[in-house]
Amino acid sequence: MFKNKWWITASIFLVFAILIVFNVVNRDSVSVTGTKDGVLVKTEKIKKKSISNTTLISGVVKPETFQGVYNNPEKGNLQELFVEAGDEVEVGEKLFSYNNDEIIYQLNQAEITRSKILIQLEQQNKQMKVLKKKISEVDNNEVKKELNSQLEDLEFQNRISNLDYKQSENEVKQLQQKKDSAYERSKIKGIVQNVNVDDRTPTNNNPIIEIESGNKYIIAGLLTEFEKYQLSEGQSVKVISKVEKDKSWSGKIEVIKNTPVSNNLDANSETGSNVSYYPYIVKLDNDDGLENGFHVSLEVETNVSNDVLAIPNSSIVQNSEEEFVFVLVNENQLEKRKIETGLAADGFIEIKKGLKENEEIIVEPTEDMKSGMEVKVND
After folding, report:
1. Residue 37: phi, psi to the nearest 5?
2. HSE on the CB side for 63, CA within 13 Å?
3. Which of 13, 75, 188, 361 falls between 20 and 30 A from 104, CA-CA?
């Protein structure tokens, strides 16, 4: 009985030993070959393509030309509106007026004074003409001397009257300008969008009248200083609707201003971001379907590499010293190849050195792969 137990125990140990040996041999075999024909791998031929990095910014649709007309209390109280929403206006057209009764009164008085001086000048000129004629006709020296004295006095008065007339003329011009400025006029040709009749108080910062120039739109927004560093005027953009993702428009960056509209100089501020913001404008190739006030996203290609060798990011193996890939050679063998990479985008990376077009690389290499290893391509 003891012998039977011993044989049973020995048999169990023998079975475990055989299983362990089989697993070790099988594991080593798979790591090198996988099957009789080699490890199954997926490959991809190296092709040329274009790679670009994209910066995403935000903007708002605005009219290409816009005028907001505000109440100016220095010109008086707003008196009369001449336009309403929907009206088409031309450059220089009157929009609204201020109460300028005092200016009109002063202008009338100045014009009266100017007319009086002009009458004096005409009278003086006639008198001087008569005196000059008498002086030329008289023979008596005493009489001629008296007449010359009168002429000198009259000529002096005439010079003073001329100066008074010029002063009066300037006063009339100034008052006329004030009278003309009692009207706010359109500076652009366009359509009146809003007439805010309730915004007449001098302390209100809202425009009384808003005018847009037809149907042409631009995209306007702000760039951080980091975005400004990446972008430049003339770059092409793709404008994407935030509401309808399938709609897009093309355009170019027309202006990036160098003066920030806001910044935070307080490095110790708890709420400040320490970032400056710079206005930009994008001119659209076509604005069909856009409306004033729409918020949009803009894609801008910042770095572009055209017609370069590119491979999937998943094919690269990286350690602390280098980047490399496994290239398929002799139809079924691996070759470890060091590479130099460049621009990366959309799951692909540019190859600057180490590979040639149409060579086959392993798409998803494993840790146990090595040069000389035999593999089978998974068709």
Report:
1. -95, -5
2. 16
3. 188
